[in-house]
Amino acid sequence: LFAGAGGLSDGFISAGFTPIAHIEMNEYASLTLKTRTCYYYLKEHKRLNMYYRYLRGEISQEKLYNSVPNELLSTVMNEEISDKSIENIFNNIDNIIREKQINKIDVIIGGPPCQAYSLVGRSRDENNMEDDPRNYLYKQYMKFLNKYQPDMFVFENVPGILTAKGGKTFKNIIAFIKRVGYEVEARPLNASDFGVLQNRRRIIIIGWRKGSGLRYPDFQPIKINAIVNDILRDLSPLNPGEEINEYVEPINKYLRWSGIRKKNDILTHHMCRNHNERDREIYRIAINAWNDGHRRLKYTDLPEELCTHKNRNVFLDRYKVVAGDIQCSHTMVAHISKDGHYFIHPDVTQCRSLSVREAARIQSFPDNYFFEGPRAAKFVQIGNAVPPLMAKGLARGIRDILMGF
């Protein structure tokens, strides 16, 4: 549910789960899910060359989609989950279950859009997001639990969900979950504990059917000997506005361990936006400050001629370098689609913001993951995603609980 570009789903597939359906309202994200569905089908049928031809631009999207059964692509539903659409969605899922002769649903996964729960979103909204309809999408999630009665479920969201509406939203979510027959626990988890080179804190709510004897899995933090530069340095240097899909170094230990880069990968999306000279000069100052003693640039530290914002009291860290020489970058967010100021590449000789592929790697997406849509849409999909490597860790824990290990 609320599948986005499929980061959470991809982690579960990697851990051995089989998806029944994806529901996602964004058109570009839905196309990304369809393309990823093609990848898995063609991989299973030893026809991956067709997928690679698409990545190289040798065949059209239509030809790629025609290479897999249409009923498989129709399991990706480009729908907004609402009171008006839910019965139709249920009917479509029921048809899939019937045609595939599926006896029961093991797990439902997903996280309703988090802007209404986000602390940043609330700080920017004059009504503190109180009237945002996304506050209530959890009720739609509960309808799926009530109808399909999975053994377990995963509900992922931002830490701000705990304090939305003074804590009332979170209490209501827990009450709804218990009402439909589930025991539940919520824990704050960090993607960095799952091997992702990113400091990304999320609330992971996991529930299980009352009386089932199941429980919240115990996740042991993974120790990784790697730094953020390990996912950047094998990609070709870029000037602003360039796209060069070439590897310049062999696969390193972290890329191999994480599965981000594989032997026969076709690199895509290594493209970055253009920048004006003023922004590049600010980037240069920010990068040098970080590289000289890990100092973070404050907007008020800039020379007056480089300052264009009148407000000097908030968002003083609006220019931020992705720290290449430590283990975790700061949190990747969808705002990277608006500008690159908060995600500056650490190499001062390039003096640019991250490319789409670099952002995807910070989120632990493998290089064979293709995002559909224009560049801004790709950035939004990446910034909103659950890191697949984190999702894989969650999925393995749930799989072991379900299988009684």
Helices, strands, pairings?
Layout lengths: L6 H8 L7 E2 L3 H18 L3 H8 L5 H6 L3 H4 L2 E2 L8 H14 L7 E4 L8 H6 L13 H11 L3 E6 L10 H12 L2 E9 L10 E9 L43 H6 L18 H15 L64 H7 L12 H10 L3 H15 L3
Parallel strand pairs: 1-2, 3-4
Antiparallel strand pairs: 4-6, 5-6
Helix pairs in contact: 1-14, 2-3
- Which class do the helix and strand fractions yield? alpha/beta
The fraction of residues assigned to DSSP E strands is 5-15%
Mean pLDDT across every amino acid position: 93
Query: Judging from the principal axes of the Cα atoms, what is the shape?
Result: globular
State the end-to-end distance: 27 Å
Uncertain regions: pLDDT < 50 for 5+ in a row? none
Number of strands: 6
Order of helices and strands: HEHHHHEHEHHEHEEHHHHH
Evaluate the radius of gyration.
22 Å
Provide the spatial order of strands within the biggest beta sheet.
Answer: 3-4-6-5
Q: Sheet with the most strands?
A: 4 strands, mixed
Please give the count of helices. Answer: 14
Determine the fraction of residues in helical runs and give it as a percent range. 25-40%
